[in-house]
Design goal:
Elements (H helix, E strand, L loop, with lengths): L1 H8 L3 E3 L5 E3 L11 H11 L3 E3 H6 L4 H9 L3 E5 L2 E4 L6 H11 L4 E3 L1 H8 L11 E6 L9 E6 L7 E4 L2 E4 L1 H8 L5 H13 L5 H9 L7 H8 L9 H12 L6 E2 L10 E3 L4 E6 L1 H4 L2 H16 L3 E6 H6 L1 H10 L10
């Protein structure tokens, strides 16, 4: 990559005893390449942003950088990080800038990283860019949320689209500290649906969690296997069931040749979640009828719950499922 070539060929930065960076003489064959061309080439690999160290390595002194800031060729994004040519940054450019300003032992993390991996939808109005930084040193950065970790395991980080990021599995562990149950279930489901991670990789991250407060929540979600819920309605109904005090059911676990949405095996009770998207139309109705017939032929009692019932009548929905035999966690009849 150009940056590797640049690092090898351009002057090396040497720290003096006073901590001042000095740039040595460039090799003769590099003198014909203007510094601005070198900066532009590097910026093209970094989503249009560069660090102060990059600029120095390209041959620009601090005074030259200040001139380019004044004339609009460089735009300050964060301390020590500049956008080249214009300040209209893409989301990846903003993510890149955040990691550059936080130093070489920093990675995009939490909601920002989940947005980068696209298993949650990024919302500028609701979220702040979050960065994970190794060690206790360093300063806060305006406009960023810094999460510090004593040590980052190399297996939990990588580079994606040129940006230092936490892996999808590690990102889910971080989200387990900050997201509500519904949001976490959706993130886990989407990350697996996009084939960014799997139960084995998540379990491996959990073994390295070392007492993280969200670890147990994430472990419960993957206990039922990959993608424990498959739709927003299943998320909603499961949430109603758990908030209502019922014992957690099996989720999309095979029973014979059918995969019931929610099932209490000891009570031989199944709840099927009927959404207008997936359960309307002649073919869908016939498929639902066949699934129900197979379950009932095997001795299952089948209840159907709609979006309207779960959303607008949650207490009634819980009472109905309990009356059909689903047990409460506190043992009440």
């Amino acid at each position: 990559m150009f940056r590797d070539t640049l690092s090898a060929k351009l002057p090396r930065m040497a720290a003096s005893r006073q901590g001042v960076c000095r740039v040595g003489a460039a090799e003769p064959h590099e003198l014909d390449t203007p510094p601005d061309v070198r900066v532009a080439r590097l910026a093209a690999e970094q989503h249009g942003v560069v660090s102060a160290a990059d600029l120095a390595l390209a041959g620009l002194k601090r005074s030259a950088v200040q001139v380019r800031v004044r004339n609009g060729r460089l735009h300050l994004v964060h301390r020590g990080v500049y956008a080249v040519g214009h300040g209209a940054l893409s989301l990846d450019a903003r993510f890149m800038a955040a990691t550059l300003t936080c130093g070489p032992r920093s990675w995009l993390g939490y909601r920002a990283c989940a947005g980068h991996w696209e298993f949650i939808s990024w919302d500028d109005d609701a979220y702040v860019i979050e960065v994970v930084v190794e060690g206790s040193a360093g300063r806060s950065r305006p406009g960023l949320r810094i999460h510090r970790t004593r040590r980052m395991d190399p297996r939990d980080v990588m580079t994606h689209r040129g940006i230092r990021v936490t892996t999808p599995a590690r990102t889910l562990l971080d989200l387990a500290d900050v997201l509500p149950d519904k949001g976490l279930r959706r993130a886990v489901r989407q990350a697996q649906a996009l084939q960014l991670t799997n139960t084995r990789l998540i379990a491996a991250v959990l073994t390295r969690a070392q007492g993280r407060r969200g670890a147990n929540r994430l472990a419960q979600l993957i206990a039922d296997g990959p993608t424990p819920t498959r739709s927003d309605l299943e998320d909603l109904v499961l949430g109603v069931v758990l908030v209502g005090g019922l014992v957690r059911p099996q989720i999309n676990r095979r029973h014979g040749c059918v995969y019931p949405d929610l099932r209490w095996p000891e009570q031989r009770l199944t709840v099927e979640c009927d959404s207008a998207t997936w359960h309307s139309g002649k073919l869908a109705s016939e498929d639902d009828a066949e699934r129900q017939a197979r379950l009932e032929a095997d001795g299952e009692r089948v209840l159907r719950v709609t979006w309207q019932q779960a959303l607008h009548n949650p207490e009634q929905t819980v009472a109905r499922i309990a009356a059909a035999g689903a047990p409460y966690t506190d043992g009440r009849p």
